[in-house]
């Protein structure tokens, strides 16, 4: 379908306004002034509008001309971005990389790597998304993300994935100092715990079976969106449950949460980084090598385990 508005015509219009004259635009675009005038006249004829008011000493944009230029500059920028992105893809760089992280880990674990990548000056858009429990593997399997950091070893689905163990995460059963269980005799039994709602984080999985670790079948639940919400609920005394020790270390030290021994301790889980084995993008490869050997991630795991930190 033919359209009167071309990228070339928009470049001419933009150059005229920036340079202040048809002659200035001709010099910038390495054309003769008559070619600039022809392009504008042809555009006006095709659109059946007047783009410049030529009644004065200088041609001035009409309201229609200003509107076309404002919107046209958006198209010019999009065209430049498209050309650049095409060259990136040809060189093996993605235009965007999506990194998912398990809510058990803080987003700050990723920041040093992202900072170093941005310093390379490669215009790849980096997007990070938070996933909960089986949602980490689900996001990778469905390709909502290109790389997942902190996927557990319990809900891994079948598929051709490359994975790397990051470390183990320990859990602590914690309650608010104002909670009824704070002064209860230890170890706590299932009957003791089931009297109170379990604070849980909503699993973000869309297709894989959702997780329910550490919750008794007859226990009521109080659900938040992520681990931060779960911690806040327990800190407020509204629920009880297991929390990553590395995420609540300071709260335990300050007494804002109290660790309680239970009859059936929760075993540590292994967390790993994972990606699709056949994905070979340069940005993905860069982040894979960096994050699988990044102390900003592993320090939250191994160094915070009892007896290691």
Automatic annotation (TrEMBL):
It comes from the Bacteria. One of its GO terms (molecular function) is transcription cis-regulatory region binding. The keyword DNA-binding applies. PROSITE patterns: HTH_LYSR. InterPro entries: LysR_HTH_N, LysR_subst-bd, WH-like_DNA-bd_sf, WH_DNA-bd_sf. Keywords: DNA-binding, Transcription, Transcription regulation. Residues 5-62 form the HTH lysR-type domain. Coiled coil: none annotated. The keyword Phosphoprotein does not apply. Belongs to the LysR transcriptional regulatory family. This is LysR family transcriptional regulator.
């Amino acid at each position: 379908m033919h359209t009167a508005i071309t990228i070339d015509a928009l470049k001419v219009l933009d150059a005229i306004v920036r340079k202040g004259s048809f002659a200035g635009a001709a010099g910038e675009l390495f054309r003769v002034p008559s070619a600039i005038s022809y392009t504008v006249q042809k555009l006006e004829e095709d659109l059946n509008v007047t783009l410049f008011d030529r009644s004065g000493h200088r041609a001035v944009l009409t309201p229609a001309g200003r509107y076309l230029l404002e919107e046209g500059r958006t198209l010019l920028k999009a065209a430049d971005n498209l050309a650049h992105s095409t060259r990136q893809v040809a060189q093996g760089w993605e235009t965007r990389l999506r990194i998912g992280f398990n809510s058990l880990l803080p987003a700050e674990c990723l920041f040093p790597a992202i900072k170093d990548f941005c310093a390379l000056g490669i215009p790849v858009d980096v997007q990070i998304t938070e996933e909960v429990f089986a949602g980490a593997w689900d996001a990778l399997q469905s390709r909502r993300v290109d790389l997942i950091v902190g996927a557990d070893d319990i809900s891994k689905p079948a598929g051709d994935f490359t994975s790397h163990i990051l470390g183990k995460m320990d859990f602590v059963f914690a309650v608010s100092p104002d909670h009824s269980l704070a002064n209860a005799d230890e170890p706590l039994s299932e009957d003791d715990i089931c009297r109170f709602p379990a604070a849980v984080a909503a699993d973000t999985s869309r297709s894989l079976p959702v997780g329910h670790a550490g919750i008794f079948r007859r226990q009521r639940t109080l659900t938040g969106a992520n681990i931060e919400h779960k911690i806040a609920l327990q800190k407020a005394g509204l629920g009880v449950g297991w929390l990553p020790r590395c995420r609540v270390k300071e709260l335990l030290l300050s007494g804002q949460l109290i660790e309680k021994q239970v009859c059936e301790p929760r075993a540590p889980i292994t967390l790993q980084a994972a990606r699709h084995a056949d994905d070979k993008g340069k940005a993905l490869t860069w982040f894979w090598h960096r994050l699988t050997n990044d102390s900003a991630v592993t320090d939250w795991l191994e160094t915070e385990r009892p007896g290691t930190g």
